[in-house]
Amino acid sequence: MTQETATASSLFDHVAAPVDAIAHFRGRLGFEADVSDVQAALADGEPFVLIDTRNDAAWQQGHVPGAVHLPRRDIAARAGDLVPSGTPVVVYCWGPGCNGATRAALEFATLGHPVKEMIGGFEYWVREGFAFDTTDGLAQRRPDGLTNVAPGGLVGEPAGHAASVAPIDHGITCAC
To answer: Which residue intervals define the domain Rhodanese in the entry (predicted)?
Structure first.
């Protein structure tokens, strides 16, 4: 009689070959940009149009300075008037829990624009501590320690200690 030993599934039982991983990750970089890269490109004056695809209420709560407001539902009808043909576009929506920017990127791609989605959206723009426009003027929040590490490192409880976390009401909500 033979005895079989049960083995645990390994994280790397199913892993792409390096050449396939290169193609996959290079491809993702062709479609996505994070908020820090977008902020740096804006500061450097790179030629592209940043499009906020959220609705009017969300736009008025806050938006990236210099962004053009073009709700996703209006792209097909209005993009030709706001964005010159062939101009590179970066789109954003609320945040990672919303696919409005993905849908908007598809709309711009069908119109022939080179397009990237700003991953993290407006939520991560604010969480990174970048300034944003509101109806009351320019605003800025302290960077979130989980998205933008302070020079002294992460702030919080030492390892092994339970942290008491109070919910924070930022007053900005997804309205896609």
So the answer is: 44-134
pLDDT tens profile 88-123: 999 999 998 989 999 999 999 999 999 999 999 999
Question: Quick check: is 64 in a domain?
Answer: yes
The count of domains in the chain is: 1
Whether 170 maps to a domain, the answer reads no
CATH number at residue 52: 3.40.250.10
Q: If you write DSSP's letter for every residue of 60-101 in order, what string do you get?
A: HH-B-TTPEE--GGGHHHHHHHHS-TT--EEEE-S-TT--HH
Q: Please determine, for residue 150, whether its predicted confidence score (pLDDT) is greater than 80.
A: no
Which structure tokens are listed for 117?
Answer: 């989605």
CA distance 91 to 46: 15
Model confidence pLDDT, tens digit, residues 112-121: 999 999 999 9
- Position 61 in a domain: yes
Distance CA 90, CA 71 (A): 13
